[in-house]
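Notes from hallway chat w/ T.B., transcribed later so I don't forget. T.B. wanted the structure written out for a chain they're using in a teaching module, and asked if we could keep both sequence and structure tokens in one place. Agreed to drop them here.
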Amino acid sequence: MRVAIETYGCTMNQADSDIIRAYLSENFTMSSVEDADVVVINSCGVIDFTERKIIRRILELKNAGKRVVLAGCLTRISKQALELADSAISPDNLEKVVDAVRSAFDGGVHFLEWSNADKSCLQKLRNEGAIAIVSISEGCLGHCSFCATKFARGKLRSFSLSGILQEVENAVKLGFREIQLTSQDTGCYGLDKGDFMLPKLLEEISLIDGDFRVRVGMMNPQHARAQLDRLLNAFGSEKIYKFLHIPVQSGDNKVLEDMRRDHTVEDFLEVVDAFRNNFEITLATDIIVGFPTETEESFWKTYDLVQEVKPDIVNITRFSKRKGTPAEKLKEIPGWIVKERSRKLTELCVRIGLENNRKFLGREVKVLVTSPGKRFMLARTDSYRAVITTGELGEFKMVRIGSCRHNYLLDEKLHRYACAQTV
């Protein structure tokens, strides 16, 4: 039997697909989607648009005569997607994917019961490259009024520190040079076991032999603030990217309260200021535009906050009503208003990104080559800033920055090459 995987959504889903791939490859022939008898769709349910896209994809595959096994968040979020699939496995039942695939030809089965599986101890088969994604926990401690992901992932379940360390060590020995630690909120790692454990985890990872870098995934402001000094100490290691992904979501505390975010704008600013006082960081944040209680004044508070903080990366999402969430009951803002606010904020973020990147022109920086592009290679500075360059995957090298765009820097040699091509 020939089986393929399609993965949608976040790095956690990508890490789950590495587990799914390991189990499938031991029992079936892995193939392209076009040649597959069964396609495992590792789904994302963060917004309505993505859900509809995946449902259309399931229908396309079934119309092409293929069996579909649904994995990922939609197994517990979308009744329609679940009914269309031939079998299903929830995010915490990945080791049952072989049975799900086999049963897809015989009436199907749904493995949706809650499990406390420690994914750090499950086998993985990663795609070739320089990047290994390592999940450190599943679920969260939040209760955001707009989010349906908790329906799929549940409450926080931190994976064992020893298991994560072993997984990282194995990945480094296999040649992976960038380790991406992921979860719904890396900042609360360990709290279900009694204490913040992310700083200790980073310190222990830093002791692993090898030349590699660690990217710490998203952490919420309130959890970063609660362990700020310990985090700053842990980030002092040269093996930890000076990259901070801390979502503020809105610049208005009233909206944050309506979102049930459990943090304030001031919490966000305190963490950002502390990191910037200690490191040259790349700052990423997330913003939801058009939350139902976002007034015109609320939006401009968000706009002003972005203008003040000048983050390097801003993930802007227009509010998407998710079934079963408290925010579903709120009256939505007209689409044209949300679209216009999103446009204004995007234009600001592009200007800020360009302004931030221009500060690197002429500088020589050390980078790690992490992934191939269409013509050249993508590399990362020690603060995880993107650089377009040449080189081999996994190579550390020095480059001089010759030009930039709002979202990346360009190696001086490639800048000269590009200029020569236009003469």
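Follow-up for T.B.: The CA atoms of residues 205 and 324 lie 39 Å apart. Might be a good example for the class.
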